[in-house]
UniProtKB/TrEMBL annotation:
Signal peptide: none
Subunit structure, as described in the record: Monomer.
Stretches assigned to the Enolpyruvate transferase domain: 7-61, 64-400
Name under which the protein is recorded: 3-phosphoshikimate 1-carboxyvinyltransferase
A single GO cellular-component term on record: cytoplasm
Organism encoding this protein: Phocaeicola plebeius
Catalytic activity, reaction form: 3-phosphoshikimate + phosphoenolpyruvate = 5-O-(1-carboxyvinyl)-3-phosphoshikimate + phosphate
Length: 410
């Protein structure tokens, strides 16, 4: 097993070119393919999740391995259902434990031909593409928004368009809005018709030149670094649009409570410390699940008790993120509590920290990236299997070196 040790710098003054958003890349790639475009969107990420999508759409092999990419698994399931040919869609061991029944049932109810090749309800899937005849369905909105995005994106290809009714609480709604935005950018007519219903017109996509914005979820680790720095810290992040369609752009507002202000100049933001923060933080992360790990680590390291709700989807992501956070924060001396399957809180309870803590990353890029900045509050911190960052941010460790962190391979 590989392990690195991170030693923090004193002052930080740096400019970091973030990777582009894998969420936007993977939507633009699917829609671009459905639009029959011969050009690729620009500024595509070189992260694993986007690489596997490009590979799949370019070569369309009989067996498509999307590794750990949730978006690729869900979006390609819908895409392959309307694309001629038969393909097996598979992924990592963890991907084969991430549920997909809701999406498969929904596509089957539209007429799709999909079989489970191993376990009912989970990848791998064998999909034969065909014209889907039906156009209306009802599905749960409280498990993963990626199922809904996947269905929406094929809506313009269906003879009568698509009407979706979502049952229950809708989680990750900004990601559905992001899907609608990218679809509209490519000429589709798709919108919310009420709080729980969506409609897509049978109006085909047009190929358009497309430029992908930097990743706001990746920006969150730089907010965390500025918040936790014991010395002067100024970080500039180019490529983040003023009116971002990414739900995780909320990070800028949320970090005001944790002592970081955001100055905007064109498509660039500069983060600085304000030296004031809240005494306690409460927030419902139902719309920004990917930010939860960043805020758990930041708040604890700043000694800010918190209660974070809306975390139910964390259990079915790259790992059970609730369990992983509880286990790894304990190594740093913080006792977190889980309740109701969706709430994680810290009321200030401490325990003896490990003498030289080594953080396990559970094949989860966000465990590595959310814990790395905690080095700023220790003289050094170890991270196991640091390569996991390649899922969304392959140059994360190089960027830490640019900012002045020292990284030693153990
Ligand atoms: O649509 C997307 O691009 C994503 C949606 C979210 O998943 P859920 O809808 O499963 O919460 C998010 O966690 C994931 O990283 C990316
Ligand atoms: C949950 C994530 O990704 P996905 O579901 O697309 O694998 C993530 O990037 O945090």
């Amino acid at each position: 097993m590989k392990c690195i040790e991170i030693t923090p710098p004193a002052d930080i003054q740096t400019c970091i070119q973030l990777p582009s958003s894998k969420s936007i890349c993977n939507r633009a790639l699917i829609i671009n393919a459905l639009a029959g475009s011969t050009c690729r969107p620009e500024n595509l990420s070189d992260c694993d999740d986007t690489r596997v999508m490009i590979e799949a759409l370019t070569h369309m092999p009989e067996t498509i391995d999307i590794m750990a990419a949730g978006t690729a698994m869900r979006f390609l399931t819908a895409y392959l259902s309307v694309t001629p040919g038969t393909h097996v869609l598979t992924g990592t061991e963890r991907m084969r434990q991430r549920p997909i029944k809701i999406l498969v049932d929904a596509l089957r109810s539209l007429g799709a031909q999909i079989e489970y090749t191993e376990n009912e309800g989970y990848p791998p899937l064998k999909i034969t593409g065909k014209a889907l005849e039906r156009h209306s369905l009802c599905l749960p909105g409280n498990v993963s928004s990626q199922y809904i995005s996947a269905l929406l994106m094929i809506g313009p290809m269906l003879a009568h368009g698509l009407n979706l009714e979502l049952e229950g609480e809708i989680i990750s709604r900004p990601y559905i809005n992001l899907t609608l935005k990218v679809m509209k950018d490519f000429g589709a007519k798709a919108e919310w018709t009420s709080d729980h219903t969506l409609q897509v017109a049978p109006q085909p996509y047009h190929p358009v030149p497309y430029y992908v914005e930097s990743d706001w979820s990746a920006a969150s680790y730089w907010y965390e670094i500025v918040a936790l720095s014991k010395h002067e810290a100024v970080v500039t992040l180019p490529g983040l649009f003023a009116q971002s369609p990414q739900g995780d752009a909320k990070v800028a507002e949320l970090f005001e409570q944790l002592g970081v202000c955001t100055q905007r100049e064109g498509n660039s933001v500069t983060l600085k410390q304000t030296h004031t923060h809240t005494d306690r933080m409460e927030y419902n992360f139902v719309n920004q699940p990917d930010l939860a790990q960043t805020f758990v680590v930041t708040c604890a390291m700043l000694g800010i008790p918190f209660r974070f709700s809306g975390l139910q989807s964390l259990k079915i992501k790259e790992t059970d993120r609730m369990a992983a956070l509880i286990a790894e924060m304990r190594k740093l001396g913080y006792v977190l509590e889980e309740s109701e399957g969706s709430v994680l809180s810290w009321n200030g309870t401490r325990c003896a920290p490990d003498e030289s803590p080594a953080i396990d990353t559970y094949e989860d890029h966000r465990m590595a990236m959310a814990f790395a900045p905690a080095a700023l509050c220790n003289s050094a911190l170890r991270i196991r299997n640091p390569h996991v960052v390649s899922k969304s941010y392959p140059r994360f460790w190089e960027d830490l070196l640019t900012a002045g962190f020292r990284i030693t391979q153990l």
